[in-house]
Amino acid sequence: MASLLESLRQHSVVVADTGDIDAVARWRPQDATTNPSLLLSAAQDSRFRALVENAFSKGKGEQAIDRLFVSFGVEILKHIPGRVSTEVDARLSFDQENSVKKAEHFIRLYEDCGVSRDRVLIKLASTWEGVRAAERLEREGIHCNLTLLFSFAQALACFDAGVTLISPFVGRIYDWHKQARKLDDIPIAEDPGVASVARIYGYGKKHGYATQVMGASFRKTEQILALAGCDLLTIAPDLLEKLAGVSGSVPRMLSPQAAKGLAIGKTTLNEKQFRWLHNEDAMAVDKLAEGIRRFDADARKLERALAGQARAAA
User: Fold this and answer.
1) How does 20-47 read in b/e, with b if 16+ C-beta sit within 10 Å?
2) Is 123 a catalytic residue?
3) Which among 128, 191, 200, 301 counts the fewest CB atoms within 10 Å?
4) How, if at all, do strands 212-215 and 232-235 pair?
5) How many CB atoms lie within 10 A of CB 266?
6) Following DSSP, what letter does each residue of 230-285 receive, concatenated?
7) Among the options 102, 123, 205, 206, which is catalytic?
8) Which contiguous run of DSSP H or E holds residue 287?
């Protein structure tokens, strides 16, 4: 009998949520996603020292970090047939103009390495400014992955902006509600993270948006299996291991056909409406702000760690 992972692949595209190139090579996902937190861990691994040294040989500070992000992306792409996501600096989350410039810079670096822009997704935080930056980039043929997505308002804005892909988070929503309710666990049938992604997926398919929905940030395999049928699912290596180690058949839980029967009206938000609706969701406000701070902190740690490695090697 096939493993749960093999069965899951019949319904959803499996994406590796890691900066570990060896893990990507092992699991051979369709796509891969990275972020500053994942690359902080990978870049301090002796296996990838050559990538770090090469990046710092061609520049310093922010320039070297950008090259490192792209270097990891280029190496990851050697092991997958699809796309890699590379994240814009979290400090630009509320800066539309410079987010666009940073994305264009990443694409130039990739193209200098012989990588077509069609194989790269630029990750931006799902702030109003991030969504507007993505809207502009999509018009340039630069495809985007809107991350740190916790509220329905964020999803609505992304759908209307025509972004290529959105990454609604499951685990961080689950974490917030578990802590708020002072619970050790929340049953899958009541899991607010799973419910959020299912609602977003259903709305997008109901109204015919081309934007792909990729469930992200999982804490347990049950959350992943509950979203079988979602366009994509980005999964950390430890959870891929668990899914691959169990035999079984995974039923499809989400489908475009089922979504067409949902009673969900279409909504378009202007900036004021977006900010109000997002503000009404306390969890989303907390987790978006926390996520931006965390990615920024890890990016700064990465800069310091790599600068130290570069000095030591000099």
Assistant:
1) bbebbeebebebbbbbbbbbbebbbeee
2) yes
3) 301
4) parallel
5) 12
6) SSEEEE-HHHHHHHHTSB--PPP---HHHHHT---------HHHHHHHHHT-HHHH
7) 123
8) helix 282-313
List the chain pLDDT tens, one digit each, 314 residues.
899 999 999 999 999 998 888 899 999 899 998 877 777 777 777 787 777 777 776 666 678 889 888 988 999 999 999 999 999 999 999 999 999 999 999 999 999 999 999 999 999 999 999 999 999 999 999 999 999 999 999 999 999 999 999 999 999 999 999 999 999 999 999 999 999 999 999 999 999 999 999 999 999 999 999 999 999 999 999 999 999 999 999 999 999 999 999 999 999 999 999 999 999 999 999 999 999 999 999 888 887 877 676 666 65
Residue 172 class from Cβ within 10 Å (0-12 exposed, 13-18 middle, 19+ buried)?
buried
Contact present, 120 and 138 (Cβ < 8 Å): no
- CA-based torsion, 204, 193, 131, 86: positive or negative: negative
Phi, psi of 215 (to 5 degrees): -60, 140
Question: In this structure, are residues 237 and 254 in contact, taking their beta carbons and an 8 Å threshold?
Answer: no
Architecture of domain 4-313: Alpha-Beta Barrel (3.20)
- 112: burial class by Cβ within 10 Å (0-12, 13-18, 19+)? exposed
1 token code pair: 């009998």
